[in-house]
Design a protein that fits this description.
With about 350 residues, this protein is an all-alpha fold. It is built from 10 helices and 2 strands, in the order αααααααααββα. A two-stranded antiparallel ribbon has the order 1-2.
């Protein structure tokens, strides 16, 4: 229905209505892209889940479990906040069209207040006559779209924080084992045991990198399309907000949508930032350990890990955009530039 509104407004050369329909179309496409990406990469997602299960089953020591669990719990909290906030946004959207009807009962005027839908869509019927069927359909589809978005994004946050947990666990092991080094050397049995533990840490590091590469491979094309659509949605919604400053209720509704779009982009960038931070933290843990007191063959293992951990593990959008907080700020500034351009074109 948003696409029908877009085509009708375009034919009528109604630029304002065209701009109103664009953010809704962008959100619809983002939802479809997320679902399509999940469907096309379902085998790879199953592989990711299998790696998560096998990793948890292979843990033997409580400290390892505690380290991995601490990072993944942080991911759960972020996903919980993200889900509830976006669902809160859509709930407010659902309530706003009912406010005039409520006020007509509580504070009646000499005339009936103007009814307004959740979004200005074209159902090819009389909107006033079929207000309630259109309203319930709009609310239902909005909740379905947002539920799909938060479910897929929450899964992405959790598996990304699992990779972060692997890096944190590897760093913890290195620091703990380095406490056993002695400048006077180690006896043969102790050195053999420590070397085996170092090999296990190197294996965990390798698995963490493989896990990260698989997550990046699955999502990078999807992220590229989503970032582009998010930029369109944010820029156009900002223009709509300015266009409706004389109508407080309408401006508030559009501003909520504007905030939801920014929130979505920010929380899609946040897991990428966490992954960069944890992968670089491992690099710091290796250098701050007593690696210089380790036997030569252990130093070789540490050296190889130092080389790889010096390169941050970055989630990208098509290899063109790094998913992190710094680039979120850059994208937002770009959106404001496009907002200024669109506003000047409209005038």
């Amino acid at each position: 229905m948003s696409f029908a509104e877009f085509i009708t407004s375009l034919r009528n050369n109604d630029i304002d209505r065209v701009l109103e329909s664009l953010p809704v179309i962008a959100t619809d496409f983002i939802t479809m892209i997320k679902l399509a990406n999940l469907n096309f990469n379902r085998k790879k997602f199953r592989k990711l889940y299998g790696l998560v299960i096998s990793e948890w089953e292979s843990l033997k020591f409580k400290d390892e479990v505690k380290t991995l669990d601490g990072v993944t719990r942080k991911g759960c909290k972020i996903a919980f906040l993200y889900r509830n906030t976006l669902l809160g946004f859509v709930s407010i959207f659902a309530i706003l069209p009912l406010m005039p009807l409520f006020l007509d009962i509580v504070l009646p005027l000499n005339e009936t207040r103007l009814k307004q839908q959740v979004f200005k869509l074209n159902y090819l019927v009389d909107n006033d006559k079929y207000f309630y069927p259109i309203y319930f359909h709009s609310v239902w589809t909005s909740f379905l779209a947002v539920t799909a978005i938060v479910t897929i994004d929450s899964m992405y946050m959790l598996i990304t924080h699992h990779a972060c947990g692997l890096f944190a666990m590897c760093g913890y092991q290195i620091k703990e084992m380095s406490q056993s080094f002695d400048q006077n050397g180690l006896n043969t049995d102790k050195e053999r045991a420590l070397y085996q533990q170092f090999k296990n840490s190197a294996i965990i590091h390798k698995r963490a990198i493989q896990f990260y590469e698989l997550v990046n491979e699955i999502n990078q094309r999807s992220f590229l399309l989503q970032i582009g659509l998010n930029m369109i949605g944010i820029s156009v919604t900002a223009v709509q907000t300015v266009m409706n400053l004389n109508n407080i209720r309408e401006a508030f509704r559009i501003f909520l949508f504007f905030g939801a779009q920014q929130f979505h982009l920010f929380f899609n960038s946040l897991p990428g930032q966490s992954l960069v931070d944890h992968s670089l933290q491992l690099h710091d843990d290796l250098y701050t350990s007593k690696w210089y007191q380790a036997p030569v063959r252990m130093q070789r293992v540490i050296y190889m890990m130092q080389i790889r951990s010096g390169v941050p593990c970055t989630l990208t959008a098509g290899g063109l955009y790094d998913m992190n907080i710094e680039n979120f700020g850059v994208i937002f500034k770009s959106c404001m530039s496009y907002f200024t351009m669109l506003l000047s074109l409209r005038e």
